[in-house]
Each structure stands twice: as structure tokens, then as C-alpha cells.
From TrEMBL:
Residues 4-238 form the ABC transporter domain. CDD domains: ABC_PhnC_transporter. It comes from Halobacillus seohaensis. Gene3D superfamilies: P-loop containing nucleotide triphosphate hydrolases (3.40.50.300). InterPro entries: AAA+_ATPase, ABC_transporter-like_ATP-bd, ABC_transporter-like_CS, ABC_transpr_PhnC, MetN_ABC_transporter-like, P-loop_NTPase. The lineage of its organism: Bacteria, Bacillati, Bacillota, Bacilli, Bacillales. This is Phosphonate ABC transporter ATP-binding protein. One of its GO terms (molecular function) is ATP binding.
Length: 238
């Protein structure tokens, strides 16, 4: 589904590659956790897959189509096919749950004061279904600034899913959450992966979570893949 071909990324003004000659293929059934110390290149890797970062060298293909040189058509495909969740949720604090979820499909609209008139009944109904799916129905009209971390990340996931992507990417989505909530969010991501058949690729620094949920673990060090295999094969030294 995703093919990464000879990809290197070097940031302007630096002398080392943040990612170095990465060759990987991901398929639909994969639930991938990416491990590695701070600075290993995990965030660069996720950002390169979703088009926020352009490879310095190499190509990324989605279902055979190159998506890595950032023309408008490619960016539209990437935005539609890939949902993304973030460590700090990246929600709009003063907007409500449903308003934040709608931004995932329609972007930020100046007039969010009244949903009616700006969104069709079908669009609102669809947003409500996704919200209900995340267990957030009762919080629909609550401003997200008043929610707990776990609730905020559920809103983040709902926002990522409203476009019905095929791929879900996470850049340390549980790094700001306590262990119990982190586990809950991973269980939810795994359930969504199974039910919606989402290719899921997540950066995480908690080895136990990766071993519990991943179907495949990648470990990065200094921009290189030093482990690629099943959770059973992974040891702390990898
Ligand atoms: P991780 O997510 O594993 O902590 P990153 O992908 O953030 O790793 O960083 C990989 C390397 O790239 C690090 O050496 C980091 O300092 C460098 N880096 C990340 N972002 C930038 C940037 N915008 N400009 C220059 N160097 C960067
Ligand atoms: P319904 O799902 O209730 O039939 P509509 O077909 O009227 O809703 O769709 C309203 C909006 O919500 C459209 O912009 C549509 O793209 C989106 N939407 C609703 N259901 C889906 C779906 N299953 N997949 C993708 N988008 C959907």
C-alpha cells in the first residue's frame, strides 16, 4: 500500500541525514509501531509519509502512485487518504468537539458559531456518528479546552477519521497521557485498525505498548532502521 523507496531526509543547515536510505513497504493489515530514542528520526519519518516533509532523495508511493513531490494533486490524495493524530492533539481549544471534528473534513471555517446553515444535515449526521463511535456523544457541544487528555485524543482520532482515510498515522499520540489512558487509546486504535482495516503507523516510546499492540515493530537509530520484525522478536537492545 505504501512503498518507501531509497528515502533520505536532510534538514537544511545540518550535516547528517535525519533519515538515511529507507526502503520499506507497508500493507493494509499492518499495525506498525516505530520505536527509537529521541532524535532517532521517528517524527521525521511520519511527517515524510504524510507529506509534511519532502524527501531530500527518494520516493514514496501510495498504491503505486508517487506522492512525495508535493504537487497539489498529490497533496489532495495524501490529505484524503491519511489521517493523522498528534502528541499535543492540535485541536482548536475554543471550538467544541463537533466543530473540531468537522475541521478534519472542511478545514477551519470562520463561522463556526452556527453549524446549521454551514453544514448539511447529512454532514452533521456523519460527524455525529464518528463522535458517537469514539464514545464522545455526551461531549459533542463541549469546548475541547475543558476535556481531559484522553478525551482530547479521542477528538483528535475522530477528526482524523472523518475523511474515512485508509491510513492512520500517529506522531507520539500517547506521549502526553498517563499509562492507563495510553493503553486505552492504543486499544481504541487497534480496534479501529481491525474494524476499518486501517493501515496504522504510530511512533511510540513505550516498548511495552508497542509489543502489546503492534503487528510489526520498526526501530530507528540515527535515521536508520535497526530492527524490522514481529513484536516477539524484538528485545530491548534492538
Ligand atoms: P524523533 O522523532 O525520533 O525524536 P526527529 O525526527 O524529531 O526524531 O529528529 C531526527 C533528527 O533530525 C534529529 O537529529 C533532529 O535534531 C533533526 N531535526 C528534526 N527536525 C529538524 C529541523 N526542523 N531542522 C533541523 N534538524 C531537525
Ligand atoms: P449519509 O451518510 O447520512 O447518507 P450523506 O451521504 O448525505 O450522509 O453525506 C453527507 C456528508 O457526509 C458528505 O459530505 C459525505 O461525504 C459525508 N459522509 C457521510 N457518510 C459518509 C461515508 N460513509 N463516507 C464518506 N463520507 C461520508
Amino acid at each position: 500500500m505504501i512503498d518507501i523507496k531509497k528515502v533520505s531526509v536532510r534538514y537544511r543547515g545540518t550535516t547528517e541525514d535525519a533519515l538515511s536510505d529507507i526502503n520499506l513497504s507497508f500493507k493494509k493489515g499492518d499495525f506498525i509501531c516505530i520505536l527509537g530514542k529521541s532524535g532517532a528520526g521517528k517524527s521525521t519519518f511520519i511527517r515524510t509519509i504524510n507529506g509534511l516533509q519532502t524527501p531530500t532523495i527518494g520516493e514514496i508511493h501510495l498504491d503505486g502512485l508517487q506522492i512525495s513531490n508535493k504537487n497539489e494533486k498529490q497533496l489532495r490524495i495524501v490529505r484524503r487518504e491519511m489521517g493523522m493524530v498528534f502528541q499535543h492533539f492540535n485541536l482548536i481549544p475554543r471550538l467544541t468537539v463537533i466543530q473540531n471534528v468537522l475541521t478534519g473534513k472542511f478545514g477551519y471555517r470562520n463561522n463556526f458559531k452556527s453549524l446549521i446553515g454551514w453544514f448539511t444535515p447529512g454532514e452533521l449526521e456523519h460527524a455525529e456518528r464518528v463522535i458517537s463511535d469514539m464514545g464522545l456523544s455526551k461531549l459533542r457541544d463541549r469546548r475541547v479546552e475543558h476535556l481531559s487528555g484522553g478525551q482530547k485524543q479521542r477528538v483528535g482520532i475522530a477528526r482524523a477519521l472523518i475523511q474515512q482515510p485508509k491510513i492512520l498515522l500517529g506522531d507520539e499520540p500517547v506521549a502526553s497521557l498517563d499509562p492507563g489512558t495510553s493503553n486505552e487509546i492504543f486499544a481504541l486504535l487497534k480496534e479501529l485498525h481491525n474494524r476499518l482495516e486501517l493501515l496504522t503507523i504510530i511512533n511510540v516510546h513505550d516498548i511495552d505498548l508497542a509489543k502489546r499492540y503492534a503487528t510489526r515493530i520498526l526501530s530507528l537509530k540515527d535515521g536508520e532502521i535497526i530492527f524490522d520484525g514481529s513484536p516477539d522478536e524484538f528485545t530491548e537492545d534492538d
